[in-house]
Amino acid sequence: MPTPTAMVSHLSKSFGSVRAVEDVSFEVFPGEIFGLLGPNGAGKTTSIRMLLDIFKAEHGEISVLGGKMDEAKKNRIGYMPEERGMYKDLKLEPTLIFLARLKGLSEAEAKRRLPAWLKRLDLYDHRFKKVQELSKGMQQKAQMIATLLHEPDLIVIDEPFSGLDPINTRLVEEIIREQQAAGKTIIMSTHQMYQVEALCSRIALIDKGRTVLYGEVDQIKRNFAGNAVTITGQGDFTNVPGVLDARQVNGDWHLSLAPGAGPQDVFRALAARDGLKIERFEIAEPSLDDIFIWVVQGKQEPSHA
Amino acid sequence: MPKLWVIAKHEYLKITRKRSFLLGTLAMPLFFVAIMAFAIIMVIASEDQRPIGYVDLAGMLTTVTQLPPEKSGPQPVELQAFAAEAQAQAALEAKQIQAYYVLPADYLTSHKVQLIYWDKAPSSSAQRRFDDLVRANLAAALPKDIAQRAQSGVDLTARSADGQQEVSGESAVNIIVPFFIGLFFSIVVLSSGTYMLEAVADEKENRTIEVMTTSLTPGQLIGGKAAGLMAVSLTQIGILAFTIVLVVFVGAQFIEALRAIRIPWSMFMTLALFFLPTFALIAGMMITIGSMVTETRQGQQIAGALNMLFTVPFFFIIIFFSAPNSTLATILTIFPTTSFLTIALRWSMTTIPQWELILAWILVTASAVAMIWVASRVFRLGMLRYGQRLDLKTVLRAVRTGAEG
Lengths: 305, 405
Known about the structure:
By secondary structure, chain A is an alpha/beta fold. Chain A has 3 domains: 148 residues, Rossmann fold, CATH 3.40.50; 66 residues, no CATH class; 74 residues, 2-Layer Sandwich (Alpha-Beta Plaits). In chain A, the strands form 3 sheets. In chain A, strands 5-6-7-3-8-9 form a 6-stranded mixed sheet, sandwiched between helices. In chain A, strands 11-12-10-13 form a 4-stranded antiparallel sheet. In chain A, helix 3 packs parallel to helix 5. The longest helix of chain A is centred in the middle third of the chain and has 16 residues. Chain A is globular. Chain A starts with 5 loop residues before the first strand and ends in a 7-residue tail after the last helix. Chain B is elongated, with a radius of gyration of 30 Å. In chain B, the strands form 2 sheets. In chain B, strands 2-1-3-4 form a 4-stranded mixed sheet. In chain B, strands 5-6 form a two-stranded antiparallel ribbon. Chain B folds into 2 domains: 105 residues, 3-Layer(aba) Sandwich (D-Maltodextrin-Binding Protein, domain 2); 232 residues, no CATH class. Chains A and B meet through helix 3 of A and helix 1 and helix 8 of B.
């Protein structure tokens, strides 16, 4: 097992009487894209902030790039926070050069690297505009440049796709893959499960300040197989006993099962219901969406996991 | 370049490139230039350049008939001798001369001269020119060094025992110099405090603090901002000082009173010693306020009230003039926020006891250190509370325990 690029172990943190993080642990290894998931207010951002030494953890252990955070390591980290921040009354190009210089890049080197990034993210013609004159999506892309311009070894990105149209989403996705291919370690916090499925090899799901799910995406999905079924048929498949969530996907019904409920139980319940016509009933490989809902709402590990 | 200097340079350029900075910084120097230009024009316009005549009935203005020209500044009016009063009167009526003196035959015993002019008396500098001519002739028979001393007249200088204060007849104008220097320093220090507030509140308003915190230490961030803003202050002081020196230098060529102005170096050095801790004290206060509020405008309102703590000595200026060693003056000298301005205002009125200066410096420095410490704790807490105003209870807890929430 290689040495993790980032590791947090049993972190906890309170703000006044509010326990923001109770017990969060995970490890992120070199060259992987690691997904940090969880509902709003679960403690993801606070955990990231503790990892990056923005907040001090009350308890627990943190290791970044092989040890405790220090000033030299800050130059090897690229961070795109959830709260996007740019100097709104400054022009784009000098702002990005300034931020790169704070990461230890010389002005000349920052100026050399910047045009390629600006062109790639379609911001080159806007480089002399004030940041406040840019659209939200453009500001988002500018923030991406600020995160990557100094070529960090560890990239921490919080909701990298929010505010982006499909074309730019694909572009950012492509950039993230390229960074991984270049050997960078990426921690990505997001709500967009399909992005996590597409990009991440491993995830940690945080809920109410605790790591409730952790491991390889494929393994987690295998563990949760049997906790969802796909049905082709006619009628109303909602409010079925033993089903947490029912939704239509491409004409089929996708049912996430409640903890303790098996596919057989659900099949029996459907068979007993009038007005339903079932053409196909199959055990589905759960999506991360299903797993997210199952874990966050179900509060239990799968019975057969 | 160390990150602290990157921040300092960024902050300096950000502020000095603002139109409001240029206007604010150049307004006062331009005001001085305008005032001085007006004064010079008035002096030139009011100065009658026609010669002044004299009729020497005493026969004593024969040894020295012409005074040497002035070394600098505008040349004084010419003195023109007339053999008889009638000739001088004719020249006056023909407006060839602006006035004429009659030195009576008994001048050496009466010590009286007669000045005849049409409707406007000659300027004091023109009259002094004739006085100099009389004095030069009276002293002509004396040994050269005594003659020179007699011609230069009385020049009494009163010095305090410690040499800190000096007052002479010609340097009376210097009484107000420390007052103005103190005033300018205060304006600059207070305006840099406001810049500090904006610099901190801007980070919060722009939500850049997370990126900053993962790039540098709070010390580098705050230190860099403080260094940049101090450079802004020094730029303002430099521009102001250069303008004042230039204005006084040029003005002195035309306005005699300005030639007596001397820079009070001892006060300058003393205020320079107080500048850094006073700046740090204000900066600490402004960082704290900037960290607590959600918008720059909110902070400016509070900062306006806090500035009063520094400018309150202006309200007691009459007391500094009438009783510069009163208990109130001493208290305001020692109190950290009022030390700087009080020292400047008291300087030309009295000799401020050394123990007061030393105690004041210790207190203002200690206050500055304490305030910066408080500011660093509140800053860390406040910067990550986007859109939230910190209440006093939370701030006090953060100061007491270093808690982040």
